[in-house]
Amino acid sequence: MRKLEQDRAGRRRTIGDYQVYHEGVAQASLTGTAVETKGPGDNKVRGNGRRIEAGTYPLATQDGARYVTIGYIVSTDPDQTPKPGLELLSTGNRTEILVHPGHGFLASVGCINLTAKLTSGRSDIPFVDSRDRVIAAIQDLRAYSRSSFPHYNGHPIANASVVIDGEPA
């Protein structure tokens, strides 16, 4: 659920909560803060630098140069690639909308960074925490999906989606 926007030195980010569910049951260890870029949500204009619209988006394994779901590197260096990530599908004219690790104020142009609670716009996203949360989500999807989890990047994940609620000002 998107809750508010935070500012720092002329930059804005959207803060919300994330929670992983299995058939409607919340998974206690897979919860935290989701960070996106500024709003309002817009799926019509490619490259607009805004968050995506509230809605439900199927998930896929990511197959990119900087982020992948299978074969990522576990490093404490935020510049080391490929980093872990998942891709949201059915995002209108927007492409490469990912759930991936963040660092600093925000590491996203339309994507979603996972982290612990951020108390104010002065709070940074700690990279290792964010990376670990994305890895935990990937590992949970793989374990929950079992044999239906894709063996390759760039494929839809059956019965897996991201639900984004709320559109704060």
The order of strands across the largest sheet is: 1-2-3-9
Helix content: 10-25%
Structural class: mainly beta
Order of helices and strands: EEEEEEEEEHE
Task: Please give the domain count.
Answer: 1
3D architecture notes:
- By secondary structure, the protein is mainly beta.
- The protein has one domain (2-164).
- The chain has one helix at 127-145, and strands at 2-8, 11-22, 25-37, 55-61, 67-68, 83-84, 86-88, 98-99, 113-115, 156-164.
- The strands form three sheets. It has a four-stranded antiparallel β-sheet, covered by helices on one side.
- A hairpin with a 2-residue loop joins strand 1 and strand 2.
- The longest helix is centred in the last third of the chain and has 19 residues, at 127-145.
- The mean pLDDT is 96.
